[in-house]
């Protein structure tokens, strides 16, 4: 599930019987989701390196796609620092 899907889920009011998240809880959720995205980025980078060493071109491309998606999400949130990329 995309980060924005999880963040947006708390804002919907169409779920009867559920209370919206407090602003502090929503901020904590956003922070957690961004950190998970950074971990996914690092895992994909490791996979790409291993795939490249094994001459697995398709595996390397798939890992690069995941890295690109994660980087875009982190860049949009202004949190490239989580993957040690200078802004």
Question: What features would you describe in this structure?
Answer:
With 87 residues, this protein is mainly alpha-helical. It is 67% helix and 0% strand. It has helices at residues 3-9, 23-53, 57-76. The chain is elongated, with a radius of gyration of 16 Å. The model has no long low-confidence stretch (mean pLDDT 86).
Query: Helical proportion?
Result: 55-70%
First-last Cα distance: 26 Å
Biggest sheet overview = none
Number of helices: 3
Rg of Cα set: 16 Å
Quaternary status of these chains?
single chain
Mean pLDDT: 86
Alpha-beta classification: mainly alpha
Descriptive keywords:
elongated, 87 residues, 0% strand, mainly alpha
How would the blueprint of this fold be written?
Layout: H1 3-9, H2 23-53, H3 57-76
Summarize the structure.
The protein has 87 residues and is mainly α. The protein has three helices and no strands. The radius of gyration is 16 Å and the shape is elongated.
């Amino acid at each position: 599930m995309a980060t924005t899907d999880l963040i947006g889920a708390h804002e919907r009011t169409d779920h009867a019987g559920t209370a919206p998240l407090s602003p502090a809880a929503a901020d904590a959720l956003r922070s957690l989701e961004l950190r998970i995205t950074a971990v996914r980025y690092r895992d994909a980078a490791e996979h790409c390196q291993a795939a490249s060493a094994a001459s697995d071109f398709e595996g390397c491309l798939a890992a690069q796609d995941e890295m690109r998606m994660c980087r875009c999400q982190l860049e949009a949130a202004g949190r490239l620092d989580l993957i040690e990329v200078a802004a």
